[in-house]
Amino acid sequence: MTPEEFRIAGHKLIDWIADYRQGLDELPVRAQVEPGEIKKQFSNLPPDRPENFDIVLAELDRKIVPGLTQAQHPMHFGWFPSNASLASVLGDITSSGLGTLGISWESCPALTEVEEVVCDWMRQLTGLSEQWEGTIYDTASIACLTALLVARERASDYSQNRAGLQGCKKPLIVYATLESHSSIAKSALLAGFGKQNLRMIAVDPTTRSMSSEALAMQIEKDISKNCQPAVVVATAGTTGVTAFDPIAEITAIAGQYRVWVHVDAAMAGTAMLLPECRHLWHGVEEADSISWNPHKWMGTILDCALFYVKDPQYLIRVMSTNPSYLRSTVDGGVTQYRDWGIPLGRRFRALKLLFHLRLDGPDAIRERIRRDMENARWFAKQVDQETGWQVLAPVTLQTVCIRHHPRGISGDALDTYTLSWVNAINASGKAFMSASKLDERWMVRVSIGVEDTTRQHVAELWRLIKHYADRPGTDCF
Ligand SMILES: Cc1ncc(COP(=O)(O)O)c(C=O)c1O
């Protein structure tokens, strides 16, 4: 494709995207397709000649859009918001269009230095002190894995330079809670700690936050058994009920034993744009690393996960590579992000944050976040006031966990009932929520925060919920 052909096709594509976004609320929220239905529309043989762009574009409407669960739909209340602000989409397109290669400072100085700039802007916008330095990863999962790898090496006095974990005399221990994201346990296993060295610390039964007393006792117990505490993962905003672990208490305990503290704020990092929310991660300055996803609630299109450390030397010591073909005369005087993480090649992700912050502006983002929190409180109030309905956990940010208890239904029958009404709503395409388990019983998470979701949409959701909960087998107009 020549630049001129690209220009013509690109204009059409941008128009198509704008139309798609404008008409999004007319589409069913959840994809109404059966498994395999999308795949079977494509030939199982690869193309054998170039095709016209218009044909490919037309196929987006016919073959791709029906297979999308519309994360940007204002009636999407599932999982966590995965906003893709159009300002950040422009940044993402720019990143692709520039076709840069990020493998060293020299391979694209702007890529490195804009990343430094936007990470520092985000540091300031979330009230973190100057002691933090950041980078952009693809996901919070990779950030957590990286934190655990670094913590492992620090705790084992850099065993990677000797026999690795296989030469360690003491088992290294990771601490988290059962409320922490599944990526934490996965990271602990991938980083070689082993399942039996992953301690799930008790949580407060109401707030679901890690019990710092239980953590302190477990660390003491592990030390007495000749184990070595290595890292605590504290979550700011858990996936299930948006619980906040007591970071100040956790860092105070961890500090006594030189245990690394990683703060997983994948979801709640966005809330830290609001000064009034920062008490929720009080103590964060004493942690060793923090990760959070602008690609969730804040709305910088996937993939955009910030990872901050106080001392990048810990990353560099564990992950630095310096092959001859990547050396240049500026080495030592510039940031080499390849030494701050696992991959060598990186995209110019900083552009989507740059575009998002400059085109939408932090004030508009803050206003939207405050709107979502108010909508969540309003929704929780409606649920609380309705007989038989229950809000199951404190509404700290924008997620409201609910259950309906019709008289005479309990135990497994209650689970079946809960799943029946939420599945009926999701299947209708009118709204989407995710069911999840709390204390082994199904509940429904109403996660408010799509960019276009207004109070009217939340009120409509509540109408749908009450309708389907009363009459799961019927349609609602
Ligand atoms: C608290 C928490 N941590 C980590 C993750 C993983 O995020 P990612 O998809 O960026 O790996 C999630 C995802 O929802 C999350 O809620």
Order of helices and strands: HHEHHEHEHEHEHEEEHHHEEHEEH
Q: Please, what is the oligomeric state? A: single chain
Separation of termini? Answer: 48 Å
Number of β-strand runs? 12
Cross-sheet strand order for the largest sheet: 2-8-7-6-5-3-4
Radius of gyration: 24 Å
Explain this structure.
With 477 residues, the protein is α/β, with parallel strands linked by helices. The protein contains 13 helices and twelve strands. Strand 3, helix 6 (182-190) and strand 4 form a beta-alpha-beta unit. Helix 3 runs antiparallel to helix 10, helix 4 crosses helix 10 and helix 12 (411-428) crosses helix 13 (455-470). The longest helix has 24 residues, at 362-385. The radius of gyration is 24 Å and the shape is globular. Pyridoxal-5'-phosphate (PLP) is lined by residues 80, 139-141, 181, 183, 235, 237-239, 264, 266-267, 293, 305.
Layout of helices and strands, plus pairs?
Elements: H1 3-22, H2 53-64, E1 76-77, H3 86-98, H4 109-125, E2 133-137, H5 140-155, E3 172-177, H6 182-190, E4 198-201, H7 212-224, E5 228-235, H8 247-256, E6 260-264, E7 289-292, E8 305-309, H9 312-319, H10 350-360, H11 362-385, E9 389-391, E10 399-404, H12 411-428, E11 432-438, E12 441-447, H13 455-470
Parallel strand pairs: 1-11, 3-4, 3-5, 5-6, 6-7
Antiparallel strand pairs: 2-8, 7-8, 9-10, 10-12, 11-12
Helix pairs in contact: 3-10, 4-10, 5-6, 11-13, 12-13
Pyridoxal-5'-phosphate (PLP) binds next to helix 5.
